[in-house]
Amino acid sequence: MSRAGLSITRDNGSLQIDDMFMTYRLIAKGSVYVAEFNADTGSGGATLSITGKNPTLFLSGGPLVAIIGKTVSGGVHTWKLMAKTSGTATYYIFDEQASADSGFGLQLFDESGRLTFDSSSKLLRFVGSYQLAWASDDSLTLPSGRTYAVSNSSTVIGIHGTIRGGMIMSLLLASSVRVSGSLIEAGTSVFGVIPQDPAYMENPQYYYGRADTVFTNVIDVTGF
């Protein structure tokens, strides 16, 4: 079955551009300092906020970071970040095409009139989705010569019991990733602490409810 519109495929037959599918363009880039969680004060982490339709966040360089949550209020999207150790990362935020970035180039619209592609935009270049074992500090190496950024949807992956000041405390953990050059690494970040009744912890040094893997999406931001 054929339809009106434009489709562009690669030489292997895979779809590259189609006016039916929305492309994401770069809307913000900057640096964010993410502080390690302080179990004594309950402080740490960082937040990033931007106004948009459906923005998505990627990070490059810096420490192992967990994206532990996102809220939306009045069109403002806010991410909560937590790091294994304090450090600064470069962030890239992409969102749906909203308006033409330039009056020149190729622009595609779907049947409803939405702009779905603009050749003058810095478009999200997806590399792949990977699964890493954070429990063993897993890593993988991508082809060199490019700049990469990563994103992961972290949730609570375990509760690690520890003894602080004579009390048993539960440290809440989230899966974390980072990319440095072409190396992607996985680990964990602490983002909370709660008192724990010893009766419910047979071994205070054990991970409870642990998930052993983290999924990360990788994009190519070379030249952005």
Please describe the topology of this protein.
Layout lengths: L6 E3 L5 E4 L5 E15 L4 E9 L4 E5 L4 E9 L2 E8 L3 E10 L10 E3 L5 E4 L7 E8 L5 E3 L6 E4 L4 E9 L2 E14 L2 E13 L11 E2 L4 E8 L4
Antiparallel strand pairs: 1-2, 3-4, 3-8, 4-7, 5-8, 6-7, 9-10, 11-18, 12-16, 13-18, 14-15, 14-17, 15-16
Strand content: over 45%
Oligomer: single chain
Total domains: 2
Helix content: under 10%
- Gross morphology: globular
Number of strands: 18
Number of helices: 0
- Poorly predicted sequence stretches spanning 5 or more consecutive residues: 203-209
What is the C-alpha radius of gyration, as a whole number of Å? 21 Å
Task: Characterize the largest beta sheet: strand count, sense, and whether it forms a barrel.
Answer: 6 strands, antiparallel
Structural write-up:
The radius of gyration is 21 Å and the shape is globular. About 3% of the residues have low confidence. β1 and β2 form a beta hairpin. It has two domains: 120 residues, no CATH class; 90 residues, no CATH class. With 224 residues, the chain is mostly beta strands. The protein is 0% helix and 58% strand.
List keywords for this structure.
224 residues; mainly beta; six-stranded antiparallel β-sheet; 0% helix; globular
